[in-house]
């Protein structure tokens, strides 16, 4: 399935958009997958990744612990919440509600830690992102895997290095 369009919005300069011989822009079905009903999305040409930039997610406990130690108090609070419910992708507003933050604060916190991530951790992060097109909620989702959550709990002091919960309550 292809869809043709004509306009002056510069679509042709966008990656993945081509022009045919008549000067009409052509988009593949993969680019339209987000607007298709769920039963038709499986037939789209372009596969949708479940996770945004998975290569940027930290997987070494020492690296996660160092990030936890270096980040701001607000970022630590976010990491603590993600570690409390590992392997459960949640929308940003759902996480903010669980912490008791006003909506859109996570965006500010992640923006604030961007310099630290880029300068000291080569852009890596101790959490995962799911792209809106791959999420049931159709919104960005954030989560920690079990290894990342364990490293945060150890660094926070709630679990000993052997993985036994010591019952420390925040």
Characterise the protein shown here:
The chain is α+β, with helices and mostly antiparallel strands. It has 2 domains: 2-41, no CATH class; 54-156, Arc Repressor Mutant, subunit A (Orthogonal Bundle), CATH 1.10.10. It contains 8 helices and 6 strands. The strands form 2 sheets. Strands 1-3-2 form a 3-stranded antiparallel beta sheet. It has a 3-stranded antiparallel beta sheet with strand order 4-6-5. Strand 2 and strand 3 (25-28) form a beta hairpin. The longest helix has 12 residues, at 73-84.
Any chance you could write out the topology, listing elements then pairs?
Layout: E1 2-5, E2 18-19, E3 25-28, H1 29-32, H2 38-41, H3 61-70, H4 73-84, E4 90-91, H5 92-99, H6 105-112, H7 114-120, E5 128-130, E6 141-143, H8 146-156
Antiparallel strand pairs: 1-3, 2-3, 4-6, 5-6
- Tally of domains: 2
Could you estimate the helical fraction of the residues in percent?
25-40%
In percent, how much strand structure appears in the residues?
A: 5-15%
Shape: globular
Q: Class of the largest domain, according to the CATH hierarchy?
A: Mainly Alpha
Secondary-structure element string: EEEHHHHEHHHEEH
* Overall average pLDDT: 78
Structural class by sheet pairing and helices: alpha+beta
Total number of beta strands: 6
Tell me about the largest β-sheet: 3 strands, antiparallel
Radius of gyration equals 20 Å
What's the end-to-end separation, in Å?
Answer: 54 Å
Instruction: Kindly identify the CATH topology of the largest domain.
Output: Arc Repressor Mutant, subunit A
Strand order of the largest sheet: 1-3-2
CATH architecture of the largest domain: Orthogonal Bundle
Q: Which residue ranges are poorly predicted, with pLDDT under 50 across at least 5 consecutive positions?
A: 1-33, 43-48, 166-170
Number of helices: 8
